[in-house]
Amino acid sequence: MLTHIRKIMSAGNGPQPASSNSGPALSIIVIVYDMPLQAERTLYSLTPEYQEGVSAGDYEVIVVENESANNLRREFIAQLPRNFSYHLRAEREPTPVHAINHGAGISRGRYLCIMIDGARMVTPGVVRNLLRGHRLHDQAVVTVPGYHIGDQLQQEAVNLGYGVEQDQALIESVCWPGNGYGLFDVACFSGSCAAGFFRPHSESNCISIPRDIWAALGGMDTRFNLRGGGLVNLDLYKRACEFDGAEHVVLLGEGTFHQFHGGVTTGGEARDVRAALIAEMTAQYERIRGEAYSAPGTSPVFLGELPWQVLRFVKDSAEPLIAERQPARDQGILASVAAQA
């Protein structure tokens, strides 16, 4: 069964070609701030050693760190693979927007993958399938669903004592990094993907965009200057997915996994403080865009292999839709029987 699903959903298993120029096809821009432990795991999950079916020549990883009291260790930076580059910035505003635009400006790939949060590990097929997604359509916007480590959203779990130690124990329990897809076993959908695979998502923390679309969008909007960038990642996701002619491709069998680190909206602060900040972010979005945020209603193409660990998320996503349609189906059957009586 799974083999059959894989064959249907795959777009070719060979390594993807590099871009027509001398650079890589894909540039992944990862933003880091005050999260060295979590960022080290994230960056390892992007290495050619961890990623399957690709080589260092297929992609580059641009690490942009906004300076803090807890920067990445020099020893770790020195050991990064040859397709990685590291850039430390002294940022004047509490937003990652400028760091992202800087990373995009120095990137070389035809496609730009934005990872606004350096605390999100990815599964081993992400790079290969991002490249596959772009092969499907020249205007493909390829996104990866998001998850939180733990059995509930971290902003809720933190109120029950969840923290870095519990997070690390769960990651170790699945023998990561040797078992990359084991992360699904100790995770739940993130808030932005809580409606499941088959309803609209509000953002992706691993979104890959053709360079011409990125240029047409003007990159990240620098008006989103609140701490953490406010709703800038949701804004990019919506504008990219709704771009005229864009084809939304979702990597069903891959994921980004948020590690607890006391982030702006995922824990580490009192509930009322977090609620006030989210309200401020929402208000800023409405001032900038002139309307409340709503998730883009795309009809995505689902691409990639389905590891068995993700099947429970497929089931949880499908069951509500089936339940909604069951009464209408039953009514149709009853009406047909009555007509034949």
TrEMBL record:
It comes from the Bacteria. Keywords: Transferase. Residues 27-154 form the Glycosyltransferase 2-like domain. The keyword Transferase applies. One of its GO terms (molecular function) is transferase activity. The keyword Hydrolase does not apply. This is Glycosyltransferase family 2 protein. It comes from Mangrovimicrobium sediminis. The lineage of its organism: Bacteria, Pseudomonadati, Pseudomonadota, Gammaproteobacteria, Cellvibrionales.
